[in-house]
Amino acid sequence: MPYVLSALDKSPLAGQDSPTDALKRTIAMAQLAERLGYHRFWVAEHHNVSDLASSSPEILISHLLAHTSRIRIGSGGVMLQHYSAYKVAENFNLLASLAPGRVDLGVGKAPGGLPLSTRALQADRDPSRKPDFVQQIAELGAYLDGKGPVEGLAATPLPTVAPQRFLLGASVESAEFAAAHGWEFVFARHLNGDDALLDAVATTYRSIAGKAPIVAVSAIVSEYAGEAIAEAENTKLFKVHVPGAQSVTVGSAEQAEEYARQIGASEYRIEPKQSSVIAGTPDQVWSEFDRLADRYGIAEFIVEPAVNGSWRLATLELLARRRSAVAA
Fold first, then answer.
1. pTM > 0.90
2. 4-235+275-327 — its CATH code?
3. Which of 15, 26, 129, 328 is 20 to 30 A away from residue 49, measured at CA?
């Protein structure tokens, strides 16, 4: 079945890169994605991570909109727990007014960092008055619809074309929640490659929303299958479970242990996750996209290159070149 490709970037530093180098690469990736016909280009939010330069997606989105002309630009995503729903709505209504019809607002429930950064981001908030995620989503949606929960209060400016809204997650519950609130759902397969879970999520979301979720994937593409597969073997994920706290997925056992240390937990469990990276030649990677699209009815994949440096741009180009060859 036909499907479109989009791209996700976290602005990783490679080698001796400075943050400026990483962000210049992100701009180049967005411009390349636009030339190659990708549907949308998203940037992420990560805090207190020295090798990632994308900590404020709203600022980066504004810059990317100014350096592209057609492709949709958005967040993948804003970590809503840290912020006022009203302010997030203002930010994205302003972006949507700057670039009508081109702005996506993706939000996630995760913290986007370890407990030290979470405490810093929420230091001035009274925990007893902090709204839960359900309430935040409801408020955010209302403000975006121009119908805020407080009479006489609007998240101005009110754009002629509202930002398209997406909820990011990796659970059946998140899919149900997105469908019930009228949000598009993006399944984070790049963090969880369990096809049984994807099957349950797709079935649930389709039964309520009448369509399939979007699927985010990690990919490593090379003209040489062995090179891509060898690189994928270096990609590992770990999920850390702490009683009474939110479980998080991180990129190393050391990060998992650091999460437990920062939260002050003496009891925790670290669960190694099966690699969800799709690796191989362009034909092999597209074949896996085809399999997932046929099995679950997926109409869009958001591709995160699971490599650093110029290989990130090459990943987008190799996938697009293969698509063009098949179309020809």
1. yes
2. 3.20.20.30
3. 129
